[in-house]
């Protein structure tokens, strides 16, 4: 069910339409070193635009007849055909001083702002679409304002064009790769925050740099080894790239290109459509996001019965299961799962089926039959509770040395979780088995052939166009992996983080092994299945009582894999944009190292200059939500441990049965159901019955909605900083008075002093 419907037929139709023979050699590109003469010929009026190293850019060229063949050929996948150009504008400069200055500047700004705002609640930051738009504005401004002259950065260095001509799509792509690397705040910052603020352990700035750099960059080695499997094949489409590719190509094409009068808005340039959608969303979001917030989760039945626990559990959207999944808020639809206009319909259908079976079906049955003491707990909540129905106070079971106080734990309470949260854990267990089974059943022969015989699927047009560029040697990636592995090993051995050496090797092995099946799923469905629960479960069982070590194990066992797949996605993005792989590699690595330095600097400056940081009552709301989650999970999984939650005889032991099942990733009912409904409209109905409109504007519409939302939430956030808050009237208060919104939708409320649950634990 994970393959896009109709791909086989589409592939056959495209091959027949182009009239190509079965011999792929006739379409392969000749390999030859590119000379300065050829470079000058293609540059035309803008000579010598490539900088730093021309030898990083190309190693071959097409003959005219093969260029014609390539222009006639296209990707066998409609998603890719809709956005990625089936030709390469080789004459465009890309490795320019303009791209590097703008890219690194946005990298520094993005890393600094997103690190700062990650410490604040609610979290907000620069998104990729905002950075893409800023890069476009800065690039066009540079093109207009900078003089047309050459500069030399050092006496013996190359002369560089300060203004290499019109700002183009390849430069913009280089900027996006550098900036996007820096936008994701390293998970290691939350580990450091938990250590500094909650565990009161300061190992110094060198430790922080070693931890962040090693966890962020270890994935490069894994990514390099996965190129044959996850980048080169046409079937690995990486849907997350499609919206960005669509917007980039639209920004740099002429206004009259790709007009299609036969479809709705077909006479309008695509860039104008994008801005109309973005500005419409920008204006509209002020209604559900500021003026009438009840439209965000219009659970009208809970408004009519705000004190009825069952109604709030069944129809609430905050701690309920949303049996009527209506929302007029794009943030609710796309904010949690991502835009529903991106994944293929079969992946959306898979998710919807899982939500209906497990959340609307199994969770309801379990909850109302009283399993896991459900009557005393909300049906859908991510918070742990104690045996009085209050939030679990993890500080009550900590000793002064930040170890488990067994006596305090036995006199306090076991951990209780809501029904859907328990199902989440069960599905996470099931995911491990389903990943392995799916990969073994569907991809084992292909993986074996790739890495033993060098076999590969027939290259599509994008792969053929990339043959002219010199690939990054494996030893580059292996060298980065070896260096970062050494830094990580140094961190584990020198600093007192209590992580055994064998556990470190196990964490790296988990990241490396699971990168293949998770990468295959993500490349097709746009869903990355996390290993956070698996790593917590494994280490919590084999090394209980070590919360600090658990956080480090989780970073090397989960974050390394996640980073590797993010790097692979960027490699595929460069593949679609026809960027030389060596340029992509250098951009990624440079931006990663710069962002790591910036994040450590900003984190330490904020911690040492903001009074009461991470306090829940901090006046400027610097409450450290990410660090607090890491701290709580380290206590629950590292101190209390999974053995006290899931072992035979414990409250949630039945969830171990999920290891024999298959599953989908965990979900929040309202978010996933509304996301699935919108996905059904765009990725099935419109794609099936209005394909030309879908092919032309679907991904641009997605980008426009996301950009408008990002701009609007930024303005609303700025208003809150200035003391301007949402008006207090019925449209903003009606949803706040329900049991669902107040997290009190439980069937049985205990009198003061009474408890529920087992007598011993």
Automatic annotation (TrEMBL):
The keyword Membrane applies. The keyword Transport applies. The chain crosses the membrane at residues 97-117, 124-142, 174-198, 205-223, 271-291, 352-375, 422-441, 475-495, 501-521, 645-664, 670-686, 707-730. It is found in: Membrane. It is a multi-pass membrane protein. Keywords: Membrane, Peptide transport, Protein transport, Transmembrane, Transmembrane helix, Transport. Residues 1-23 are annotated as: Disordered. GO terms for cellular component: membrane. GO terms for biological process: protein transport. GO terms for molecular function: oligopeptide transmembrane transporter activity. Belongs to the oligopeptide OPT transporter family. This is OPT oligopeptide transporter protein domain-containing protein.
